[in-house]
Amino acid sequence: MELLNYEVLKKPGYEGYILESAPEKVMQFGEGNFLRAFVDYWFDMANEKAGWNGKCVLVQPIPQGLTDMINAQEGLYTLYLRGRENGEKVDRKRVISSVSRCVNPYEKEGFDAMMELAVSDDLEYIVSNTTEAGIVYDPECRMEDQPCSSFPGKLTQVLYARYKAEKSGLVILSCELIDNNGKELLKCVEQYISQWGLEEGFRKYVSEDCTFCSTLVDRIVPGRIKDAEEAEKLEKENGYRDQLLDVGEVFGVWNIEGPQWLEEKLPFKKAGVNCIVVPDVTPYKKRKVRILNGAHTGFVLGAYLGGFDIVRDCMADDTVRGFMNHMLYEEIIPTLPLDRKDLMEFAGAVQDRFNNPFVDHELMSISLNSTSKWRARNLPSLLDYIDLEGKIPTCLAMSFAAYIAFYTNDIQELNDKGLVCRRAKGNTYVCSDDRWVLEFYWDHRNDSAEDLVHAVMTDEQMWGQDLTQIVGFEKLTADNLKLIREKGALAAFASCL
């Protein structure tokens, strides 16, 4: 079977949208599954729905990557968006044609191509997702490197070439999963300007002519078809071989922090896709962390003790789903500073996302590092609810007891892999967390419920504060923990409804 390219795509009579040629308006650092299922999808939709007429040039951010495979397919690849929307199963296929080529700057030809694109009159945007470790200042980088090893170093080289060529400033859209990603990237660039002794005119160009945007991205991207038989079946149906086939969930949202004029400049509003420009992404990050991530951490530990193994099965259970929804709609949403309709819609999409028939999201994978997760995702909601309502939220409090129960359920041993516990089903499981957390629970394995809860709640290294100072929370947690141990986690969840 032939490899996907424009000529091969015509043979099976593909009837979807395709744009074969257009100006190269985007330089994208990163060519992996996420960016291709997210950013390049948005630009592909902008081409079809808004007549944007642009292409993305992908830049391989590290020495090993997908350049050869992408160029062999002329930038084309098949994207499947799968999941649920408004309760209905969705499985959409789209051949993405917004990518023109990929360059490897670690080869001379690729570095020259990157720098040539840097001074192009067509270039408008730089997009990046170089992982959380990508936005890092490395003082070993030098201006004359071809290329700099760090992404901020490469970006500084690109922007300086553009400045010297007297070309207009660019919009930089950072998608790395760190707080204030755009601001942190700008800081790194400014450090290179100082280190390399570049002129003040360039510093002004970077800060005034260019627009560094912090963004918040949200789409789960499994990235591939795991089932070999299904992959072979899809290949036969498509009539071509695709070594870059990508899979993402149907839900997706891109919040971009930037000036008001940027919303009109970007093609996304006109294309009608779920991407908005806001003055501050912080409330949207809070929405994601507290609703999506907070829901996960809030119910998965108790659900696992109750016998469930994957998220989707939890959504089919009235008790677990009811517990999660009560926590979201009655306890978390009232504490958030966004439009209630927006929050309700986002929370409604969460249930669809958790009920994705194409993704087996294991509860144990979500359980990793639950101590820091509960502190970051759930504790702020609990504290805000108490401030707002003057009482302790029932489900969030139960989720805290379930967290303690998960780390102490019939403890077997502490080994190199983690803290080994056993659940009612009879199988053992391994709690994975910071070593000091695991040693804490091992040391307290023989405590009574009351003593254990007191030790946990007064450990300020865990929570940044003494939780026993919250009136009534210590006794409630001890009672909840005993209920989980005596009646089971599902009965404890049911008692909250």
Architecture blueprint of SSEs:
Layout: H1 6-10, E1 24-29, H2 33-37, H3 39-50, E2 55-59, H4 67-72, E3 77-85, E4 88-96, E5 99-103, H5 108-118, E6 125-128, H6 151-164, E7 171-174, H7 181-195, H8 200-209, E8 211-218, H9 228-238, E9 246-249, E10 253-257, H10 260-265, H11 268-271, E11 275-278, H12 282-305, H13 311-315, H14 318-332, H15 340-354, H16 363-366, H17 370-377, H18 379-389, H19 394-408, E12 413-415, E13 418-422, E14 428-431, H20 435-443, H21 449-457, H22 460-463, H23 473-487, H24 489-494
Parallel strand pairs: 1-2, 1-6, 2-5, 3-9, 6-7, 7-8, 10-11
Antiparallel strand pairs: 3-4, 8-10, 12-13, 13-14
Helix pairs in contact: 6-7, 7-8, 12-14, 12-17, 12-19, 19-23, 21-23
Descriptive tags:
single chain; 497 residues; Rossmann fold; 2 domains; 14 strands; globular
Any overview of this molecule?
The protein is of the alpha/beta class and 497 residues long. It has two domains: 6-279, Rossmann fold (3-Layer(aba) Sandwich), CATH 3.40.50; 283-494, Orthogonal Bundle (N-(1-d-carboxylethyl)-l-norvaline Dehydrogenase, domain 2). Helices cover 48% and strands 15% of the residues. The chain has 24 helices and 14 strands. It has an eight-stranded mixed beta sheet with strand order 5-2-1-6-7-8-10-11, sandwiched between helices. A three-stranded mixed beta sheet has the order 4-3-9. The radius of gyration is 25 Å and the shape is globular. The N and C termini lie far apart (56 Å). The model has no long low-confidence stretch (mean pLDDT 96).
How widely separated are the two ends? 56 Å
Mean pLDDT across all residues, rounded? 96
Say which CATH homologous superfamily of the largest domain is assigned. NAD(P)-binding Rossmann-like Domain
The coarse silhouette is globular
CATH topology of the largest domain: Rossmann fold
**How does CATH name the architecture of the largest domain?**
3-Layer(aba) Sandwich
Low-pLDDT segments, ≥5 res: none
Helix-strand makeup class: alpha/beta
Counted by DSSP, the helix tally is: 24
The portion of residues assigned to helices is: 40-55%
- Per CATH, the class of the largest domain reads Alpha Beta
Number of domains: 2
- Major sheet description: 8 strands, mixed
> How many β strands by DSSP?
14
Strands of the biggest beta sheet: in what spatial order? 5-2-1-6-7-8-10-11
